[in-house]
Amino acid sequence: MIRTLVLSLMLAGLALGCGSGSTDPDDVIPPFGLIDLRATKIADTFVLLAWTAPGDDDRVGTASRYEVRYVTSGELTDATWPGATRVGGVPSPLPAGGDEVVRIEGLSADTAYRFGVRTVDDNGNVSPLSNVVSLRTAAVPVQFLVHIGKGGAVGDPSAEEPFFLFPRHIAIDRQGRAFIADERNNRVQRFDKELQLSGSWGTSGDGPGAFQGTYGVGLNSDDRVFVTDTGNSRVQRFSASGMYQRSFGSAGSTENHFTDPRGVAVTLNNRVYVADANRVQEFTANGVFVQVLPEPDALGWDPAGLAVTEGGTLYVTDLKNHRVLRMSPDGALEASAGQMGSGPGQFLDPVAVAVDPRGWVLVADLNNHRVQVFTADLEFRFAFGEQGGGPGDFEFPHGIAVDSQRRVWVVEAGNNRLSLFDFP
Question: I need a labelling partner for 169 at 20 to 30 A (CA). Which of 18, 51, 229, 311 fits?
């Protein structure tokens, strides 16, 4: 259980004091020194620190209190501990083996911190210094602006636009219009830059312009809209107004066939990348097969979300290995980040990726209910959002895009809505 509270920050020039219990001359065993101190969330002005509760005597019993301290320059060591900044209001320890999670607020944005913990028992015995966690708080706080939409099904007379039923992915054209794959309503919805619904198309079926589950959506430089039609194992191409133009692909595992088409991204020179089960295929804008990109490494992959830069660099989210990859236009692996988990830079099913005009990489981290932000070289910077239905919260964020004004658009499959953030 997370014990969340606002912690005051106080300069401490004090040595560790004695605990609050009676003194037992036979009690000389200190609490165990923490070895799993870690940051589980990093924002601009707060962090969440987590660790496993030690005991009163090594790993047995319940300790008396914690001391949490940090430095913003130099190293945190036994020698620098007495002069480090002390965090006040830390809750009392749980019994040995408990999961401690503490929120530390009042931090400065874009600042390096080194945190450490010592544990004290009721006889004043003090543990060794824990492992030290080094981190940098978020440099650019993302500001929530608005969200629109709610759950609703096509044909339901009580449904009021705009409504969605499991929105999957989103793409934004040069005019700032957003195109959203509304999967279970088997349609694509178009919104203008003021978030007003300006059109939609699609119905359930297997004919031209019909869908069996819209998943990915991508745009080329001519504002042609490419939509992955998962249930029909194909990609369909439309004009920006929704006029059907062509489709390519069919069910199968060989070239120019699809098993589970997901994300789609298009380069300025009209190279169309489609994420399929365990591979990424490349096509021309007219649907002519070009190549299957090579697997990035011996780990294999399960690609889902795709994004390309103006220079042709390709970013791919990998569900199998819970990571994001940066690749050359021909599929050579250049960088990767992530592993399974809920800590900074870790993922639980990264499903979508976007690149902002400055080259920042944003990843929709589906089952951690957040968006994580990285540099172009995939160095983790910060994350925003947490599970919920309030402003700025997420419930299974599934699609993400960034417009020319650096506004972040996120579609949530769980909340059936579109959320908009300012990313200055």
Answer: 311
Q: Which residues pair with 161 in a beta bridge?
A: none
Distances 381 to 108, 264, 371 between C-alpha atoms, Å:
14, 26, 11
Which has more confidence, 26 or 278?
278
Of the candidates 204, 201, 255, 270, which has an alpha carbon nearest to the alpha carbon of residue 231? 204
With bands split at pLDDT 50, 70 and 90, how would you rate the model's confidence at 7?
very low
Give residue-wise pLDDT tens across range 65-94.
999 999 999 999 999 999 999 998 899 999
Q: Please give the radius of gyration of the chain, using alpha carbons only, rounded to the nearest integer.
A: 25
What's the angle, vertex CA 278, arms to CA 256 and CA 207, rounded to 5? 40
- DSSP β-bridge partners for residue 325: 316, 336
DSSP assignment of 293-361, as one string?
PPPSSTT---EEEEEE-TT--EEEEETTTTEEEEE-TT--EEEEE--BSSSTT-BS-EEEEEE-TT--E
**325-336 tens-digit pLDDT:** 999 988 899 999
Rounded distance between C-alpha atoms, residue 102 and residue 419, angstroms: 28
Looking only at the bridges linking them, the beta strands covering 143-148 and 417-422 are antiparallel
If you average pLDDT over residues 369-391, what whole number do you get? 93
Tokens 């990109």 locate to 293
- Hey, which residues does 371 pair with through a beta bridge? 364, 384
Distance CA 34, CA 22 (A): 25
Neighbour tally for 253: CB within 10 Å: 11
Token representation of residue 177? 């219009």
Which positions ≥6 away from 225 have C-beta within 8 Å? 171, 179, 188, 217, 218, 219, 237, 238, 239, 240, 242
Strands 225-229 and 234-238 come out as: antiparallel
Cα(123)–Cα(31) distance, rounded to whole angstroms? 11
pLDDT value of position 45: 85
Dist. CA 301–CA 310, nearest whole Å: 25
- C-alpha separations of 277 from 16, 252, 281, 320, 355 in Å: 56, 11, 10, 10, 23
